[in-house]
Write a structure and sequence with these properties.
Number of helices of chain B: 15
Radius of gyration of chain C: 19 Å
Order of helices and strands of chain B: HHHHHHEEHHHHHHHHH
Helix content of chain C: 25-40%
Largest interface: A-B, 47 and 46 residues
Number of strands of chain B: 2
Shape of chain B: globular
Strand order of the largest sheet of chain C: 6-7-8-3-9-10
Largest sheet of chain C: 6 strands, mixed
Distance between the termini of chain B: 26 Å
Shape of chain C: globular
Chains: A mainly alpha (about 290), B mainly alpha (about 350), C alpha/beta (about 270)
Order of helices and strands of chain C: EEEHEEHEHHHHEHEHEEHH
Oligomer: heterotrimer
Strand content of chain B: under 5%
Structural class of chain C: alpha/beta
Chain lengths: ~290, ~350, ~270
């Protein structure tokens, strides 16, 4: 039993790093706009699928990945302009339902474009896996974990160290005040969706060599990423990343020790638990956001 | 009020005429499906009357189906006993879910119901010995009415639409009397409702349980009608599907619920028939794209539903000559407040 | 019944480091009109929120008919007979004016969810009674002709009257009005003052927050003055008006023009 543990933890860490990237997207958009974006997982799907399609057209990996991320950013911006912006000022619930609608639309369009068969992506740097204790950590898994840390670090630096980053934080703290100093909440929303889409795309591209890329991979990633973000308190990016690892680990351990297939049930049981425990905190955030 | 009863009578008469006018099995099956979905949607509409939304209705729908199917199939209960028992079970489960979930702010309540929906669906797949796993349950007993075994879609048509009319009548009554006024007051302002002595938590819980019971009843009916169930029609996707039906109808409008269920089910038939011609390569849930876009468009342009959106337009138009006549500030204000 | 209907005993409410109410005590009723006045931010609305259960007090007790009601949820307090209106009027915009008032009748009607769904004869009977009662109250406040309009279509002042009508329809023992006259025309205000007086004469008790000093002078039997969360004066309107502490409190607050021609506290904010 115990011999399995290191491997399960490494697997959990790998998958958790992707949940972390999706969760960061949730947090960015929630902090800036107050919207829970359930199309977040679809950004990961779009990144992975575009990248796979380009690789299929014999584009080398690096430009393919770059175009995939940029293209997904564009999709994020389009989503904001076409579905969120026109409903600006609606009830939070209306906006959430809209993001579910967008997520359905993304999934359906991906199916039309690329079909239902999974695409496989090559590992970024093929080679022997690393052995950690008794577990095995593939090269791609290292990429996944490493990139999630790099992205979190970069975002942190952006928000903490740069002037535009400070402006975004100001907008998140107080929409009225930021309007007074000339920051448009609408432009901030556009920015949030663009960045969140890019972060999601990175996650999708880096996990695709391990799990494959399919049109419907976004739903699961989005929901798990959401649970991770809630565990982290929804407004705190580093905590959301931690939440991603927690969700990944739990899923991996449940699959390894209890029963495969119960992973998502346990994850969502955890969501319910966290929601009911954190409800004061969450309520307060929700109220603050409405101001 | 009398107009509504006239509408109900008219609907009943029209429904009674359908089998004679279009007796094909396809039309009957389509109507049965609409009817079953309409019951779930009516439950969502009742819930929406109090300003709540659930993304877990498919779970209650599925729970009703599985519970009634198992009681009738494995324990040999009469479906007429297993169906109400299943509804009662679903109500109890909903109460258990509501205890923690209803304390959450509206957005997080929705997410809790979503979580419950996913958990229930996983259990349907995983509890293999009981539920038959992914391959589902076969040979569910059909309904027997007055000693006669119902076999055709047309037989079930009368049962299903009898249930729909009953569900519609109950929902309409409820929204028209004291409890309905309390629910609508809660939608308007929970604080305002509480200040008038309305026990907001209690009403929200009761209407949540009731909406789950509606879904459970529809599920039980579905199980004994189709006589085969598997987890897939009860997944998250179905909850979204029901939500679309409810928002098309306006989420707080009982008649809108019926309209929404019919419109979306018919749209689904058209899409399923036409889409393969446009995209011959793809199978599966391609129609998702259409529903997603429909959902987004409705939420942007008709947040109170297409039925109500139309009515609002009519009211606005009707007001124009009046406003032109008086030009008073009250009219300007009322037109401006129409969106509030 | 002897003794007060409503007793506020040592009520304190802190928000973080700010003390919005500080050891406030006074008594109300029965069949009395008590006005709470004070500069903006004096804690008047906080007082209402604590009495009606929307806020928990940090210390102190509210007794109603000698039983403590602190800690009860708002709906229970309203059901017991204390019904309030809000400073920023709360109407159910999607419902008609008449339906809003019918919701007010919730307190003294009993039909439950299932009885409603079945529309039993008793339910219909009760509904007819509710409609009649609601129409009567609407006529009382002068909104009778607008019964079938959506409440959101009413101008702000009328929405305030609607909220009062809705609270009256609840047939409360104590009616708490938070700035009832704000936004009303002079004519509507006079009508409201007369109405309050008449209802008091038939036994209803009022606790009102009011900025309009003419209303306070004319309607109130007694005035409680709050400043920075403390009760600084209490007494008959004429006495309080000339209380030096009250004048100072108002002079210190530049939002209110103090000491008009008649002398003492005044100004319509």
């Amino acid at each position: 039993m115990l011999a399995l543990l290191p491997q399960l933890l490494l697997t959990g860490l790998t998958i958790g790093s992707i949940y972390a990237l999706v969760a960061i997207g949730f947090v960015i958009i929630y902090n800036i706009t107050g919207i829970l974006n359930f199309a977040q997982g679809e950004f990961a799907m779009a990144g992975a699928m575009i990248c796979a399609a380009l690789l299929g057209a014999h584009v080398p990996l690096v430009p393919a990945a770059a175009v995939a991320v940029a293209g997904t950013c564009l999709l994020g911006a389009l989503m904001e302009r076409l579905s969120i912006e026109p409903a600006f000022g609606s009830q939070p619930l209306t906006l959430i339902i809209i993001t579910f609608g967008v997520s359905m639309a993304f999934r359906g369009i991906a199916l039309m474009l690329w079909g239902a068969d999974p695409y496989s992506l090559p590992e970024f740097t093929p080679g022997d896996p690393l052995t950690v204790l008794t577990g095995v950590l593939g090269r791609q898994a290292m990429w996944a974990i490493g990139l999630s840390i790099v992205v979190v670090g970069a975002l942190f630096a952006f928000f903490a160290r740069t002037l535009p980053g400070a402006a975004v934080r100001a907008c998140a703290d107080n929409a009225l005040a930021s309007r007074l100093v000339g920051i448009s909440p609408r432009r901030m929303a556009l920015f949030a969706f663009t960045v969140a889409a890019g972060v999601g795309a990175v996650g999708g591209i880096v996990i695709a060599p391990i799990t494959g890329a399919t049109y419907d991979m976004g739903l699961g990633l989005g929901l798990k990423g959401f649970v991770a973000a809630v565990i982290g308190g929804l407004t705190n990016a580093p905590a959301a990343v931690l939440g991603g690892y927690v969700v990944g680990m739990i899923e991996s351990l449940v699959t390894g020790y209890l029963a495969p297939g119960y992973g998502s049930a346990i994850t969502f049981a955890l969501l319910l638990l966290v929601l009911s425990l954190q409800r004061e905190g969450l309520l307060q955030t929700a109220r603050r956001r409405q101001v | 009020m009398n107009r509504e009863f006239a509408g109900l009578a008219l609907l009943a008469a029209a429904l009674a005429a359908v089998p004679a006018l279009a007796p094909s099995a396809y039309v009957m099956a389509l109507f049965n499906l609409i009817g079953i979905y309409a019951i779930v949607t009516l439950g969502l509409v009742l819930l929406g009357t109090s300003g709540q939304v659930s993304l877990g209705q498919a779970a209650f729908y599925g729970l009703g189906a599985y519970a009634s199917a198992l009681l009738a199939r494995n324990l040999g209960w009469s479906p007429w006993l297993s169906m109400p028992s299943a509804v009662a079970l679903v109500a109890v489960v909903a109460y258990g879910v509501g205890l923690p979930a209803l304390r959450l702010a509206d957005v997080f309540f929705v997410l809790a119901t979503l979580g419950v929906g996913i958990i229930v669906n996983v259990l349907m797949v995983q509890l293999d010995p009981l539920t038959g796993g992914a391959s589902g349950l076969r040979d569910i007993p059909g309904l027997v009415v007055a000693g006669r075994r119902l076999t055709t879609d047309r037989d079930y048509y009368y049962v299903v639409w009898g249930a729909v009319l009953a569900a519609l009548l109950l929902a309409r009554n409820l929204s028209g009397h004291r409890a309905g006024r309390a629910l609508r007051a809660i939608l308007g302002s929970e604080v305002g409702a509480a200040a008038l002595g309305i026990d907001v938590e209690r009403y929200k819980m009761r209407v949540f349980v009731l909406s789950a019971a509606y879904a459970g009843a529809a599920g039980a009916l579905y199980a004994h009608y189709i006589r085969f169930i598997s987890p897939s029609p009860f997944a998250l996707y179905a909850s979204l599907f029901f939500l679309i039906m409810a928002v098309v109808g306006g989420l707080t409008n009982v008649w809108g619920g019926l309209f929404g269920a019919a419109a979306v089910t018919l749209l689904d038939q058209v899409v399923r028939a036409e889409m393969p011609r446009i995209f011959p390569r793809v199978g599966g849930e391609y129609q998702t794209a259409i529903y997603g876009i429909v959902l987004v468009l409705i939420m942007i342009f008709f947040p109170s539903g297409i039925v109500r959106g139309g009515l609002d337009l009519r009211r606005l138009v009707a007001r124009v000559p009046h406003a032109a006549g008086s030009g008073g500030p009250a009219d300007a204000e009322s037109a401006g407040g129409a969106r509030a | 019944m002897t003794g007060p209907l409503l007793a506020i005993e040592g009520l304190t409410r802190r928000f973080g480091g700010v003390t919005a109410l500080h050891d406030v005590s006074f008594e109300v009723g029965p069949a009395e009109i008590v006005a709470v006045i004070g500069p903006n931010g004096a804690g008047k609305t906080t007082l209402f929120n604590v009495i009606t259960g929307f806020l928990a007090p940090s210390a102190g007790t509210v007794r109603y008919r000698e039983r403590p009601i602190t800690g009860l949820p708002p709906a229970r307090i309203a059901a017991a007979g204390l019904v309030r209106t809000f400073q920023h009027q709360v109407v159910f915009g999607e419902m008609t004016v008449l339906e809003n008032v019918m919701v007010g009748c919730h307190r003294w009607t009993r039909t439950g969810l299932l009885e409603s769904a079945l529309a039993l004869p008793a339910v219909r009977r009760e509904d007819r009674e509710v409609v009649a009662a609601a129409r009567a109250v609407l006529d009382l406040v002068g909104l009778g002709p607008r019964g079938d309009d959506p409440a959101r279509d009413l101008p702000v002042g009328r929405q305030r009257l609607l909220e009062i009508a809705r609270a009256l329809a609840a047939r409360p023992d104590v009616l708490l009005l938070d700035e009832a006259a704000a936004g009303l025309t002079a004519e509507e205000t006079r009508h409201l003052v007369r109405l309050i007086g008449r209802l008091r004469d038939v036994g209803m008790t009022f606790l009102v927050i009011e900025h309009n000093m003419d209303v306070v002078m004319e309607a109130a039997d007694r005035v409680v003055v709050l400043d920075y969360g403390r009760k600084i004066a209490e007494g008959r309107p004429a006495e309080v008006q000339h209380d030096p502490r009250v004048v100072a409190a108002y002079l210190g607050d530049d939002a209110v023009a103090a000491a008009p021609a008649g002398g003492g506290v005044g100004g319509h904010s």
